[in-house]
Amino acid sequence: MAKIKTAVSTAKTKKTLAKPKGKKPEPMQGVMALALEAAPLSEPMDAYFAKCMEKLGFVPNVLRAYAHDMAKLEAFVAFYNDLMLAPSGLSKLEREMIAVAVSSENKCFYCLTAHGAAVRALSGDPLLGEMMVMNYRVAALTPRQRAMLDFAVLMTNASHEIEERHRQDLRAVGFSDRDIWDIAAVASFFNMSNRMASAVDMRPNDEYHAQARG
Amino acid sequence: MAKIKTAVSTAKTKKTLAKPKGKKPEPMQGVMALALEAAPLSEPMDAYFAKCMEKLGFVPNVLRAYAHDMAKLEAFVAFYNDLMLAPSGLSKLEREMIAVAVSSENKCFYCLTAHGAAVRALSGDPLLGEMMVMNYRVAALTPRQRAMLDFAVLMTNASHEIEERHRQDLRAVGFSDRDIWDIAAVASFFNMSNRMASAVDMRPNDEYHAQARG
Amino acid sequence: MAKIKTAVSTAKTKKTLAKPKGKKPEPMQGVMALALEAAPLSEPMDAYFAKCMEKLGFVPNVLRAYAHDMAKLEAFVAFYNDLMLAPSGLSKLEREMIAVAVSSENKCFYCLTAHGAAVRALSGDPLLGEMMVMNYRVAALTPRQRAMLDFAVLMTNASHEIEERHRQDLRAVGFSDRDIWDIAAVASFFNMSNRMASAVDMRPNDEYHAQARG
Amino acid sequence: MAKIKTAVSTAKTKKTLAKPKGKKPEPMQGVMALALEAAPLSEPMDAYFAKCMEKLGFVPNVLRAYAHDMAKLEAFVAFYNDLMLAPSGLSKLEREMIAVAVSSENKCFYCLTAHGAAVRALSGDPLLGEMMVMNYRVAALTPRQRAMLDFAVLMTNASHEIEERHRQDLRAVGFSDRDIWDIAAVASFFNMSNRMASAVDMRPNDEYHAQARG
Amino acid sequence: MAKIKTAVSTAKTKKTLAKPKGKKPEPMQGVMALALEAAPLSEPMDAYFAKCMEKLGFVPNVLRAYAHDMAKLEAFVAFYNDLMLAPSGLSKLEREMIAVAVSSENKCFYCLTAHGAAVRALSGDPLLGEMMVMNYRVAALTPRQRAMLDFAVLMTNASHEIEERHRQDLRAVGFSDRDIWDIAAVASFFNMSNRMASAVDMRPNDEYHAQARG
Amino acid sequence: MAKIKTAVSTAKTKKTLAKPKGKKPEPMQGVMALALEAAPLSEPMDAYFAKCMEKLGFVPNVLRAYAHDMAKLEAFVAFYNDLMLAPSGLSKLEREMIAVAVSSENKCFYCLTAHGAAVRALSGDPLLGEMMVMNYRVAALTPRQRAMLDFAVLMTNASHEIEERHRQDLRAVGFSDRDIWDIAAVASFFNMSNRMASAVDMRPNDEYHAQARG
């Protein structure tokens, strides 16, 4: 893609990469295995973290991990929130189901924990969450949902084999081309997020495990 | 992650998903296989596309593909530019090398083409670009670069097997924990981007193929 | 092995395979996908099912699935109970950890559910159960436990590559040859059980999901 | 499954695990790589071994390997004999064909040798045995036999992908639900047995190699 | 490679591809699944086939399969005989062991049968032939032979991962660079031959199966 | 195959394997990683190399690598030229497309470079060459070409699964049985050549990279 800086790009400068004086940072205990120091929160991120505390009772560790760098945190939050919360032909539950089915293929502890909880909460069906974690094929899904997850899992395991006929399979169960974009975007995102979490050993907040167990 | 909308999140409303009146959109010929209509460019994106034209002579097709939705395009551009252009212990060439080595594992035609050209251009070494596309193990790399690419490829193929010893391998050749974050972030991103491109059959601009062939 | 019938072998005759008169059996709803009729319980199995009801509040569905044939049910119960409950250098928790780590590789919904609950219950650590289900590598294990699970997972994924040096790895962390037998026996058994459960679509009792969530 | 001891379960006590006084046991030369001492044969096992000697001229090494513990040996023999010898819609040859096709996927030297000999003997067709060992797809099988082996091999390589349509493929060539149970049970068992044999380096008796070569 | 015809190249002309008049050729029953007509044997091939009859009692089916085209047959025979029979630091038995270990990875019925017989015959050890077919790791090999087969199998399964350190492993057990060439050449050849045989369903002569069974 | 020397076989004797007196050979810099000394060219090979120089401006490194032994070089050249240049129902371009699609699966730097250039040159379509290297599924192929490459790639990745129905797929798009032989022969050959090149780290001549870039 274009190697061009723009207004929407980061204002970070070399200076911000200067090593902090004084003592070396510790690994972020309970957050991730890298020793990176939290940067001061920018105003919008401060507000966002406050909202997390208010609504969830905690700040998800993925955000704390990205908070070593405000530009990265803001970009991640914007990207993520558009993906999972913006209007879409896919319900929020469907997007979370994709998240978990993909994370199961990649055996990502962080995402299986956090998004498994989301499936349980959004569906009100704890078993559905477990099935997405363990093997989505055992769930009693609509043909639409099954096609959606089959596509997401094929994208995860052999994206280079995807061809027009696979997109046709989605259209055949009623997905629009915009829906296909959204399925692809969510499945792709968790293939990123799973790897990021595993690469730096990100740890989910303990609160997720007991959530929405029914 | 938190299901909370914030200032940095999208302002899109349900309305924007309304199907365009009149004729059905065509597949974006030469851009991707989905039939999505380009949205009117927002001001910053209009400026960004203009800069692309000025500096590259074309707008990369990945941007045209995302341009069916301004919120998605802006989020993608911000995320991407921070990743590939912001200050980092990794040079821009090193980030592009990771991009191509990862894309080779995923056999992503779009990314191999666009980022293969970037490696050729940034290194001034057309052969290095070919090696990243074909099999990065044949390149005469520094131990640092080799460790970086081995980690990126392990992340691509078996991220669930990554453990502290793999991060130690990176530290042993001189990477800081912040560098490790950046390696992980670039490798993760292209695992997303490769799958997005393959899922919607994104096509690279023809201009890339002949670039920087030496 | 020897093609020889013995006292310990089954007394079943051709007659027992005669199709039941009257209406065709239905799939065992909630138990498995095969339409097999429950046979009358033998005396020891009747006692065993009663004990299950008394101690667990339900009869595990795997037993109900095998109960179409008393010889098979009795052989399974004897084999299973010796494996998981007989004296061994491995604790019951360790045997359950192997069960879940193996079942995770094979994505077996039944065994992940039933034995994931057992790990949570025996360890008093719900998180440990989740980790075994999702990716055992993220758990903080003793070197002994880690070696045990690595061996079990190698047996699952590439048993033909096992050689003396892998057994030596187990001896090096303190396992006796008898312990190695037991590790191998448990890992092998769940490679059987996972496949049996998936082949006939065995379904875990609903009770497991909420057990020992902390 | 239920953590409940019953009449059919083992009577073994902790005492039996006490290390034998005096010299350390040697690896069981020609039987397996673990140094486990043979336990005194129980009465039924003594009779069984005598029958093996009488009918086969040798005691299969798998039995000698299990003979370090009578409870384990008896449970194994009972389970195995029911599986391979009890009345079934599958002939004994068909069960042996499954055994070998599964063992070929797992490259298990012990089982390929012992059960390859059984296929040669039961079929009177040495070539059929070789084909099961090398690649079952080259054999001229009935559609029924082919479907049976395809299912067994799918169970071996990707049991988590099995769904109703695969069971329907078996019903379509005439298998009853009870037959499907038996196919699944044999294929599952050898996925256990192959791994056990490889994990402890079990060695087949030399006698098998020359048997039934035509 | 060079697109240049030379003296050593074939003298075949378009004419030889003309379809034979009259009835369509039948599949070569017992030889392969393609319906190709045997061409008249050239003088050297006629002599070669005669020698085969004299020494082996049959013409190997691979030769009959190639005999639809004399240029192909002659090129194959010359290439093969140099590889397997010319002077080399590898004994003929070692070359056959490589052939079988490679063919086992590729599950090639033809080559496992024909070259399994060769290992049995050349070694005078029927068991060694079986081990090469089933899982070469179970054989009691010298470090030199083991390194040779490990390299051949790595070439078969992941040739793109081979690097200098793998060649060093061979040098460390005494192989010269010329020996490494020969190991590589034999392993490569059977990766060709296995695929050719499977692609056209080549069938080994029945005589092989009983040969050298001891 | 027959262990019989014939007129067409090599005249090489043990003597030719004698180690050269004096200094040890160096690795063939820029050709391969093995230290083998070039043998004096035989008359036909001398003529062939001269033709290469005249027509290509260089001698392909694969020939220089084989030139440590004239019998091997001559056998290779004869085999290769028949395969790629002899009359066939497949055009030379089609044979080169197979070569590159197979080499892409095996990630062979040498063959992707040399034969990628050939596809670019023969087709006059630089993009087609890139697509064969990166992922042949993205190219706009005729059904005939697509079936041909699908078969070649299946042969590369799972030759043991090939059955009559796969050959029927080729016949259905118009290939004769002789054409199927030729597809199989080319795909098989590059599975050999890829492995040989990777095993000895063969390096393509620099000239290839810039050839036919359009």
Oligomeric assembly = homohexamer
Number of H- or I-type helical stretches of chain A: 10
User: Approximately how much helix is present in the residues of chain A?
Assistant: 55-70%
Q: What's the rounded overall pLDDT mean of chain A?
A: 91
- Helix/strand class of chain A: mainly alpha
Order of helices and strands of chain A: HHHHHHHHHH
| Gap from first CA to last CA of chain A | 46 Å
Shape of chain A: globular
Low-confidence stretches of chain A: 1-18
Sheet bearing the most strands of chain A, described? none
Most extensive interface, residues per chain? A-B, 87 and 87 residues
Strand content of chain A: under 5%
| Total DSSP E strands of chain A | 0
Taking all Cα atoms into account, the compactness measure Rg of chain A is: 19 Å
Please give a structural write-up:
Chain A is mainly alpha-helical and 214 residues long. Chain A has 10 helices and no strands. In chain A, helix 7 crosses helix 9. The radius of gyration of chain A is 19 Å and the shape is globular. The N terminus of chain A is likely disordered. Chains A and B meet through helix 1, helix 3, helix 7 and helix 9 of A and helix 1, helix 3, helix 7 and helix 9 of B.
